[in-house]
Amino acid sequence: MTSGSEAGAGPAAGIRRVAFFGSPAFALPVLEALHEAFEVVLVVSQPDKPVGRGLKLTPPPVAAHAAELGLPLAQPQKLRGNAEFAAQLLASGAEVAVTCAYGKLLPQSLLDTLPYGFLNTHTSLLPRYRGAAPIQWALICGETVTGTTIMQTDAGMDTGPVLLQEPLPIGPEWTALELSEALSQQAARLAVQAVREYHQLSPQPQDPAQASHAPLLTKEDGFVRWQDPAQAIVDRSRGVAAWPQTTAFLGGKRVKLTGLSVAPKPAGEATAPGTVLGTADDALIVAARGGSAVQIQTVQPASKKPQPAAAWAGAQGLLPGGRFDLWEPQPA
Predict the structure, then answer these.
(1) Per-residue pLDDT at 267
(2) Are 121 and 62 in contact (CB under 8 A)?
(3) Band of pLDDT at residue 331, cut at 50, 70 and 90
(4) What does the alpha-carbon distance between residue 44 and residue 19 come to, in Å, rounded to a whole number?
(5) What are the b/e assignments for 66-88, b being 16+ CB within 10 Å?
(6) Helix-strand-coil split of the chain, %, nearest 5
């Protein structure tokens, strides 16, 4: 295999045959772009999974689209020690593989299979936000700029040398849904560029001292921390908008909140976080840390439809001075 550090020493002819590894809908623009620019000789996606109440076996979006395009498709249950799949990948004639949200770590034995290895599209400016949820954590952490990195994959977690990197400003009201859409389009364009220019690119090692991590979200990541400043509460709601969504508790009962924004700073002394300050039109105003406040547009109690937050509060008898439960981290 030609390592990333040897990228500039390749033949003058461009890469033509590409394998693609991806699973969710986010990866579809990348597959489409590669299919238009190169010969995609193999698409690799996760196995079909039971979906819905009927637990019907359903292919991942990438697998379904590959079938629609008539592209060769593989859905191996495992990669490590899977000699049959490694042989299939080698026999495909792919010169390089591009991965985008495939969902499994690639063993070194597989990375060594193709002449130019594997290129990964990662939705952050590495080494920031390594891991499975860089889009969500960039929003939760209040970033105003993120971006896409194309790196030469190694056996670590997003630790390989960087081939291409491009920043993307984050819209002030974007949630994870809007940011995902923008990044998927950026990733598609940069993936094609990286394959086309592979032999001219100079891989740059990442600085591990600058690394931060973006683990998979849990349900608890969606719980409102009223003790945080209002902007941090809003940023968290933007990051968890797709899943697990924003959850608050009142008297131990769970409700989902949507349409969160920073409210104008309340007059007077700071009020205890989580305290209801009043209403504004159909919205509910709740105190946060340091005298800041959050405006909530919609509340959805368990097993009920969403409703205007002010109307919900009135039906609950939740008057100014009432208080939401404070979230406390659970001991490990």
Answers:
(1) 81
(2) no
(3) low
(4) 8
(5) beeeebebbbbeebeebeebbeb
(6) 30, 25, 45
Contact 284, 299 (CB under 8 A): yes
Beta strands in 185-311 (DSSP E): 246-250, 253-262, 276-280, 283-287, 293-301, 307-308
The letter for the amino acid at 285 is I
**Residue 126: DSSP 8-state:** T
What backbone phi and psi angles, to 5 degrees, belong to 110?
A: -80, -40
Going by C-beta distance under 8 Å and a sequence separation of 6 or more, which residues neighbour residue 283?
259, 295, 296, 297, 308, 309, 310
3-state DSSP of 10-27: CCCCCCCEEEEEECCHHH
Residue reference for tokens 């990286």? 194
Separation between Cα atoms, residue 35 and residue 185, nearest integer Å: 14
Domains of the chain: 4-210 (3.40.50.170), 219-316 (3.10.25.10)
Whole-angstrom Cα distance, residue 307 to residue 313? 10
Instruction: In the chain, count H helices and then E strands.
Output: 8, 15
Distance CA 101, CA 126 (A): 16
Question: Do 117 and 2 meet the contact criterion of CB atoms below 8 Å apart?
Answer: yes
Place of tokens 């690394």: 211
Per-residue pLDDT of 31-65, as tens digits, reads: 999 999 999 999 999 999 988 888 889 999 999 99
Is the separation of the CB atoms in 134 and 57 below 8 Å?
Answer: no
Q: At what angle do helices 176-196 and 28-37 cross, to 10 degrees?
A: 20
Q: 10 Å Cβ neighbour count for 223?
A: 20
Of 135, 302, 149, 130, nearest to 235 (Cα)? 135
Give the model's confidence band at 332: pLDDT under 50 very low, under 70 low, under 90 confident, else very high: low
Q: How far apart are CA 283 and CA 295, in angstroms?
A: 6
6 alpha carbon, distance to own chain's centre: 31
